[in-house]
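Input/output pair, single chain:
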Amino acid sequence: MIKRLLFGNATSIIIFAISLLCSIGLLVIPQISDIQISAWFVFPLGFTLLPGILTIVLKEKIKLNHDRNIYRFLSWGTGFILLFSFFFILEPFARFRIEIPYQNWLVWMSVVFLYGFLSLYWVAYLWVIKSSKDEEQKVSSSREGFIDFARGFAILLAVGSHAFYAFGYDVLFGDAMYQVMSFTRLATPSFVLITGMMFEFVYFRKAEKQGFRAMVQSLVLRALQCYAAYLITVFIEWFNQQLSTSEAINASLFVGNSLFSGILKFYALFLLLAIPIIWLRKRFGILVVAAIPVFVWLVDELLAKIIWPTQEELIANLTALIFGYPELSNFSVWHALTFMSFGMLIAYAIKYAKQVGNWRIFQCTLLALFLVCALISLVLVLPTTWGDFFFDFSNEYRINHEIPYYSIGSMGAFLLLWITWKLRRFLSHPVWEHSITTLGKDSLWAFAVGNSLAAVLPALSNQVWYVTLFTITVLGGSVVVIKVKDLLIMK
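Output:
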C-alpha cells in the first residue's frame, strides 16, 4: 500500500510539489531583499525548478526502472548528495576550511533541501523493496547474536568516550571522571578480544576450508579497508581544522596521531599480524594460541631494555603503535596479542560447546580465564586505594602498557560476553537488532562514521541536554549511515 502510494503514480506529483515549494522558499528568504538579483542567482533557482520542470516536460508518469545501472547511478548519486548535504548544513556551525558567506549559504539551502529530500525519497524506496524481499526470503544465519551485541556495546563505549572527550571528562563528571573513564576504557579490550574471536570463527575457518592464501587475501583486504577508513577520518579532522596539514600527513603515514581514529590505524596493522598467528594456529593447534600471552610478556621484558627513539622523533609514533615504546600510543599491537589470544580461546570453546551441545564448556572457559586474570590483577595492583586504582587504570596502566590494563580489561570483556550470552534471547528483539547489534555487525563503518561525527559535530554547550543530544547523534547517526549504506549497495 505504502509502495503504491509513494512510488507509483504519485511520484511525479510529489517531486513537482516539493520542487515548487523549494523554489518559492528561495524567493521569500528574508535576506533576499538584501541580495542583488544577478546572473549567479539564476543557478540556485534553476536547480530548484529543474526536477519539477522535468516532470512536466516528460509528460509521462515517472516510473522507477529496475535496470541495475540506473539503480547504481541513483544510489551513488544519493550517497554523494546526502554526504554533501550533511557538511553543507553544518558549515555555519563548524570550523571547516571552506567558508561560505551566510547569505549565500541561506540561498543554496533550498537547493540542498530539495535534493536531500529526493535522495531520502530514493532511500525510502529501496527500504520498501528490501522489506518486501525480507518478507519473501527468511535467511537463516549461524552468527551468534550476543557476540555482535557485545561488540556493538564496546563500540558504543568507545565512540561515546570520544563524545565525552569532546566536552571534557572533568567538565561533565567532575570528581567521578576517573570512574566513568575507567568504564569507557573497557571498550578497547572488549573490542579487540572479540576481534580475536572473529579470527577463530571467520579467518581460521576460511584457512581450513578455502586455503591459507584465501585467508591471507581476506585479512589484507580488510586491513586496507581499515587504512582507507582511517585516512577518511584523518581528512575530516584536517578539514575541520583539528589537525594541521603537516599533522594530517604525519598521521596518515603512522608517524603522527589523529584525535579519534587511532583504533583504525591499530587495526590496519593488527589484522596483518593475525596472519602468522593463524598460520601457527593451523599448524600447531589451539595450545600455541594459549601460550601467546606468556610469550608476549616475556618478550616485553626484553623490549623494555631496548633504547627506543625519543618521543620527539616522528618514528617514535610508529614504534609506540607496534611495540608500545616509547609511551606515546594508547594502542600497542604487540601487547594486544593478549586480547587476541583470549578471544581465540573463547571462540574455540564456543565452537566445541555447540558441537557437543553443552554451553557449560563456554562458561567454564570464561570463568577460568576470568579467575586467572583476577589473580594476576590482585598481585600487581594491591595495595592501592579505589581512587588510585581508577586513576591508574584509566591513565597510567593504559599509556604505559602495563599488565593490569590487559588483565583487568580482559576481565571486563569476559563479563560483557557472559552477560550478553545470558541475555541472548532478549537481545534478539528488533530494537537491539537495529541499534547496538547493527554497530557490532559493521564495526568498521561504526568506528569510521562515529569518530568522524564526534570530530565534526560542534560542542556548543556543556549542558546535560546538549551532551545527551550530541552523544545520541553520534551513535544514532552511525546506525543510520550503516543502514543507508546497506540499502544503497543492495543487490
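The chain is about 75% helix and 0% strand. The CA atoms of residues 154 and 358 lie 27 Å apart.
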